[in-house]
Amino acid sequence: MSAPLPNLRIGPVEIGFPVVQAALSGYSDMAMRLIARRLGASYTLCEVMLDRLIIEAGRKTRQRFMQQNEEERPVGAQLMGSDPERFGPAARELAATGFQVVDINFGCPVKKVLGRCRGGFLLSTPPVALEIVSRVRDAVPPEIPVTVKMRRGIDDSTESRDRFFEIFDGAFDRGVAAVTVHGRTVEQRYVGPSRWEFLGEVKRHAGDRTVLGSGDLFTAADCLRMLRQTGVDGVTVARGAIGNPWIFREVRALAAGKPLPAPPSVHEQREVILEHFALAERVYGESKAGRQMRKFGIKYAQLHPEPQQVRDAFVAVKCREDWHRAVARWYSEDGPGRRPLPEDIHKAQGSDTPGHEAAATLTCDV
After folding, report:
1. Alpha-carbon dihedral of residues 313, 318, 321, 327, nearest 10 degrees?
2. Residue 361: which pLDDT band, with cuts at 50, 70 and 90?
3. Average pLDDT for residues 240-265, to the nearest whole number?
4. How many helices (H) and strands (E) in the chain?
């Protein structure tokens, strides 16, 4: 029997079980985060927010992105931008709003983000990236840990690798509590495998500094494999958690030496889907929740025994009534669920990254 997994800690914040939910633009709002927590995630991050959104947006927009619940603590906020001077005030506002961790995005590979010198672009400019780290660390109270999320570089060149480690080491020197590393390059976007051997190399380089791994975590077994093969201190589940929050319950069972739980039955899926929808109504209001939840329904459909038909039903949803009609049509009769294969997940995601519907944040999961 394998040794128990050590608990994850980010600076002074005790996380516990080392499998957490990543920031996912257009998805990881308060509703998704609460569902993940209730099904076993020990920590979640909200959708990545632009510095200018935090500083300049109206109260209603800010509230929608910054909404939190006591049940989900600790919860982190992810921040992205290009101007170092804006990062300090934005980070200060996030901390004042109640987030327990402030995470800086240096990894988003979406083209329009790169074109605006944000996200993964900053891996090409270590001085700017490290100035951002310093400004965020100086802006928030010492009890609020600052973390960074990166890809393994812009590309696979020697120069890109050197810049990665310059930022990685420099960020820790400037006081970050942890760094999450995605095993793909920015140039790769989501094409090709995440290079887990690089994550192992980074963790060996880091020593006792806290490193989390990311990339190609679509099953509970994937999460355990990454932890045990690479030695990272924790893993962040991104696309693998959309429509499958049960992944957190499953990985806890495997880590405890128990058999992999059966996929959730149709009625178990229905209960969570309805719970998720009710939470979404609290975030968006009754008139908008149906359309907002359509993208989740498409992902939840992967676990249904008739995935394509259920997916088509959720694609057609435009309002609250449509949503409940689809659930009543396809989830009234119980039966065994199915476990989505990685290729099913990739097909459901399509060529777009998570976040393509979130115009206000423009971003991705890293």
Report:
1. 30
2. very low
3. 96
4. 15, 11
Q: Which residue has the tokens 């998805």?
A: 27
Per-residue model confidence (pLDDT) at position 366:
53
Q: Which residue among the candidates 108, 223, 319, 364 is catalytic per the annotation? A: 108
pTM of the model: 0.89
Angstrom distance (rounded) from CA 57 to CA 63: 10
pLDDT at residue 81, rounded to an integer: 85
pLDDT of res. 116:
65
Distances (CA, A) of 188 to 61, 147, 303: 32, 23, 28
| Dihedral, 57, 58, 63, 65 alpha carbons, nearest 10 | -30
What span, in angstroms and rounded, lies between the C-alpha atoms of 122 and 126? 7
pLDDT in tens, 58-75: 666 667 777 788 888 999
- Rounded Cα gap, residues 201 and 315, in angstroms: 42
What is the distance in angstroms between the CA of the first residue and the CA of the last residue of the chain? 33
For 251, the token pair is: 């990985």
Q: How far is CA 360 from CA 61, 118, 222, 279, in A?
A: 9, 14, 32, 21
Q: Which helix (H) or strand (E) holds 329?
A: helix 320-331
Structure confidence by residue, pLDDT tens digits, 325-342: 999 999 999 999 998 766
Does 319 participate in catalysis according to the annotation?
Answer: no
Report helix angle 158-173 to 196-206, nearest 10: 40
> Cα separation of 150 and 183, whole Å?
9
Q: Is 68 helix (H, G, I), strand (E, B) or coil?
A: coil
| Residues 253, 259 contacting (CB under 8 angstroms) | yes
C-alpha 236/C-alpha 17 separation (Å) is 11
Angle ∠(321,324,328) on CA atoms, nearest 5: 135
Distance, CA of 8 to CA of 13 (rounded, Å) = 9
The SS3 call for residue 123 is helix
Gyration radius of the chain over CA positions: 19
